[in-house]
Amino acid sequence: MTEQISPRTARRIALSAQGFGRTPPAAPGPKHVRDLVRKLGVVQIDSVNVVTRTHYLPAFSRLGDYPREALEAEAWGARRNLFEYWGHEASLLPLELQPLLRWRMARAEAGEMWGGLARFGRERRDYIDGVLKEIERRGPVTGGDFNDAPRGAPGWWSWSDGKRALEWLFWAGMITTKTRRGFERVYDLTERALPARIIDLPTPDEADAQRELIRRSARAMGVATMADLRDYYRLPLAETKARVAELVEAGELAPASVKGWRQAAYLAPGARTPRTVTGASLLSPFDNLIWARDRTERLFGTRVRLEIYTPAHKRTHGYYVLPFLEDEAITARVDLKSDRQAGVLLVQAAWREPDATAETAAHLAGELRRMAGWLGLEGIEIVGKGDLAEALAREQE
Question: pTM of whole model > 0.90?
């Protein structure tokens, strides 16, 4: 039997599943960060540091002014609870997911990875094995330790052979990130970098692992289409279809229909449907809630696009644009930049969305002040354009 769900209900289910609508803890710390990442199942990593690196932002959006050191301790500390791998792009994931991704590592070792690295693996496997032996002998290394080839044109082919070998070994699961220096990965053998309690866990077969990843995706989204479930951990299409059918047959996913959605949907068992969702949050453009642009449009009626790689004169909203979630709607978006030398958070553009209210500028101004304080900046400066910029500037007076 297919459950009929209204768009508003679907949105509330999704927001609740993603950790919105809850009162932030008074003093968020490592446990709150750990619990949140387990709830989300994956946090995307990206190198852009215009505001702050994206992996710090989902916890801020949901927990408030947490210490960024708490995430660093969970990800790269001596008693870590997260690890890095290709989950949804480059990601931080709960340690217990490592066995569930070994099938992907095995496929990578067999050559099923991004084309350039797959070819490098076929052509230079002896060299890769030599790099692995050197890590076994030497201990933790960085890409700079193997910077042994001239750089060429921009792109993966500009990496040294050593860098390519490290990326290949990382994808194949033979090495992982032990820690980071600045933003540079420090690699070590996986069995030395991760706790023995994780390394010693049995490896599930592919189907079992994929079913569990889809269960986790469903819980993290609440209600989702087949494409949504596949995208969360970037699963293969044919396998996703098979695993979803098996979970529906077992009663672990409930078929649903959301009015206005072209594709069939699936409801996670126990998904909460709050009567309302309240709060104010600035969202990283790589936040789990909005990283799938089609899903964002279905949930919020808002077209969100990443314009980092768009030429400046063709950008609509700006370079590093954060949507503003106000209660149950995306009501604005702001192009932000941390001017660390001047100690201010620059608002380079501020735009209204159709669901903006008379209070949006005030609520957004409050969230910007909170973000500036969290980033250690002394204030906010409205320097840009946009149909919300003037109202936002008045709130700063």
Answer: yes
